Task: inverse folding
C-alpha cells in the first residue's frame, strides 16, 4: 500500500512536470551545437576522434548483452530474483550499443537530421534505467509495466523535437524532461528507497560519471585548447559516458539479493 502511494506521487509529479514543459517557453537547439572543437579527419573519416570514440558504447552495450545472455543460461545466477526483471536491462544495453551507430552517424556529418538518430537511443537507455530502478526499489510489477510507456514517451520526445525543428521553431522541452527529469527521478528513488540487491549504491557513481561527461561536453573547446589539441571535451564525453554504462554491467555481475 505504501509503495502504491509513492507511485501515485511520482505519477502526479511527473504529470505536473510535463504540464510545465508545455507551458514554459520552448528551448531551442543552439545553432552552434554542431560546431565541435575537434574536426580533424583521419583515414578518410571526418571528425575522426568524435566518430571513433563512439565504439566505446558498442563495447559497453555488447558486454551488457553478453552478460544478460549468460544470466538466462545460468540456473544459479544471482543478478535477478525473477528473470523478467532483466527486461529493462535488455532495452538499456541494446540502446547503449545503438548509441555507437547513432552517434557515429551524427558525428560523421553533424546536422539536425543526423542528430535525431543520436538522441533516440540515448533517451531510450535512460528510460530503461528508470524502469529498472522502479523494478528494484519500488514495485516489480509497476516498473515492468512502465517500461514500454517510458520507451514510447522517450521516442515521442525526440520525434516531437525533430518535428518542431522542421517547422522552424525547435522545442527541446519534452526531450529535456525525458532525459534530465528521468535522471532526477532515478536519483530521488535511489535515495528514498533501498534496492532489493547488493551494490545498489553503485548507481550514484554511474550518475556522477554521466554528469562529468556532460560537463566535459560543455567544455569541448576549452579542453581541446588545454590539451593542445590532443583530445576534445566531446571525445572525452563519449569515453566517460561509455565507461559509466559499463559500470552498470559491473554492478550486475557482482550483486545478489539483500539478505
Result:
Amino acid at each position: 500500500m505504501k509503495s502504491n502511494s509513492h507511485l501515485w506521487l511520482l505519477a502526479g509529479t511527473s504529470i505536473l512536470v510535463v504540464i510545465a514543459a508545455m507551458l514554459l517557453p520552448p528551448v531551442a537547439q543552439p545553432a552552434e551545437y554542431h560546431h565541435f572543437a575537434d574536426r580533424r579527419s583521419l583515414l578518410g573519416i571526418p571528425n575522426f576522434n568524435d566518430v571513433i570514440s563512439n565504439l566505446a558504447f558498442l563495447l559497453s552495450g555488447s558486454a551488457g548483452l553478453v552478460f544478460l545472455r549468460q544470466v538466462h543460461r545460468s540456473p544459479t545466477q544471482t543478478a535477478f530474483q525473477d528473470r523478467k526483471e532483466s527486461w529493462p536491462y535488455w532495452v538499456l544495453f541494446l540502446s547503449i550499443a545503438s548509441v555507437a551507430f547513432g552517434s557515429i552517424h551524427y558525428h560523421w556529418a553533424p546536422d539536425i537530421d543526423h542528430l535525431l538518430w543520436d538522441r533516440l537511443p540515448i533517451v531510450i537507455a535512460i528510460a530503461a534505467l528508470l524502469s529498472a530502478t522502479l523494478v528494484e526499489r519500488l514495485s516489480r510489477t509497476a516498473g515492468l509495466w512502465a517500461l514500454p510507456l517510458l520507451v514510447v514517451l522517450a521516442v515521442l520526445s525526440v520525434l516531437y523535437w525533430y518535428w518542431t525543428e522542421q517547422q522552424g521553431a525547435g522545442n527541446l522541452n519534452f526531450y529535456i524532461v525525458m532525459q534530465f527529469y528521468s535522471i532526477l527521478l532515478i536519483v530521488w528513488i535511489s535515495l528514498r528507497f533501498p534496492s532489493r540487491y547488493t551494490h545498489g549504491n553503485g548507481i550514484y557513481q554511474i550518475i556522477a560519471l554521466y554528469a562529468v561527461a556532460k560537463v566535459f561536453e560543455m567544455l569541448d573547446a576549452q579542453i581541446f585548447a588545454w590539451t593542445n589539441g590532443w583530445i576534445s571535451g566531446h571525445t572525452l564525453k563519449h569515453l566517460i559516458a561509455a565507461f559509466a554504462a559499463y559500470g552498470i554491467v559491473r554492478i550486475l555481475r557482482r550483486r545478489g539479493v539483500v539478505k
